[in-house]
Amino acid sequence: MNLNLKSLLNQLNDLEGVDPKAKAEILDLGKKLQKDVEILEFKLDRTEKVKQTTAILLEETIEELQQKSRAVEETNKKLLHSLEELKNTQNQLIQSEKMAALGELTAGIAHEIQNPLNFVNNFSEINQELVSELLELLDQQEWEEVKIVVKDIAENEDKIKHHGKRAENIVKSMLQHSRKSTGVAEVFDLNQLIDEYFRLAYHGMRAKDKSFQVKMLMHLDGSLTPIKAVKQDIGRVVLNLITNAFHAIAERGQFNKDHYEPQVEVRTKDQGDQVKVEVTDNGSGMSDQIIDKIFQPFYTTKPAGQGTGLGLSISHDIIKAHGGTIEVKSQDGLGTTFTFIIPKNQK
User: Fold this and answer.
1) Full-prediction pTM beyond 0.85?
2) Is the pLDDT of residue 299 over 90?
3) Per CATH, is 181-347 categorized as 3.30.565.10?
């Protein structure tokens, strides 16, 4: 009890000459007030204890949060390090996949380069003969004949330049394919790229298996103007789809040698702001279970050591990055069609 209030009530109780009724009412009121004060003191005391307890808990909580924060920071550092290692590993795997694909094309590259080089050599030899003939005609002052020979030499030089440029482009394409993508869009002829990779992939397969045969069909939309995209990446998608088609018909050919004519068809179609590319084969096909997983990283139906399982996954990511779509339709044992659509003007 509050001592001042208690003293006041005692003094009031000892007073004489005060109306008993009024005195009783004042004493009752004082006692109630005294009780309220006691309750208030109890609450204040309890509040102080709660406050002290809360302060202790708060301090402990802050310390715990700081410890957890430090633990989270440490975990984040480890995660960032792991992520960096994962990215490096992914880049190495992607590069390995690219080089594996390039390795399959080595023989095709050699074959495709040999053809224009043969033309260069042949026309160079012809020009050597024409130069000798030209010197004789100059001595004889046969001016009309001189004009004809000079014209032939000039035409042959144009052919040499053309085929030399063709060989140069093949080498450039393969060097570009082997390097890390710059991700920079450029203007190029998609039909020409498909034609080039179709032949390279074929000769690459032939180099590994001399018995490999396929009917190659190209229906390239002549109205398709050059597109703007990341040439190196689109080339990788085209090469991957064509190579997969060749593997599919080779697989079916092992089990259906009689009355089977292997065929791979590539189509392009101008669709206004977009272009559609289809690669169709009548190879081994795929089941629905395989189709569901075909674009997953590291998923492959090839024997161990014969595929990374990244080709179609990377192709899917490339097309998606171009703002396009890629899909597959297949019948088990009958064939497969891969279709991708991308904008013609990549920004």
Assistant:
1) no
2) no
3) yes
**Phi-psi label, residue 17: left if phi above 0, alpha if psi -120 to 50, beta otherwise:** left
3-state SS class at 95: helix
Residue spans of the domains in the chain: they are 181-347
Q: Collapsing DSSP states into helix, strand and coil, what is residue 274?
A: strand
What's the pLDDT band for 93 if we cut at 50, 70, 90? low
Q: Which two tokens stand for residue 119?
A: 């033309």
Which amino acid makes up residue 16? E
Q: Is 338 exposed, middle or buried (0-12, 13-18, 19+ CB in 10 A)?
A: buried
Torsion of the alpha carbons at 268, 172, 101 and 318, rounded to the nearest 10: -50
Q: What is the pLDDT of residues 16-38, one digit of tens each?
A: 556 667 667 766 776 777 777 77
Distances (CA, A) of 317 to 297, 307, 314, 324: 10, 18, 5, 10
Query: First vs last Cα of the chain: how many Å apart?
Result: 84
d(CA 232, CA 277): 16
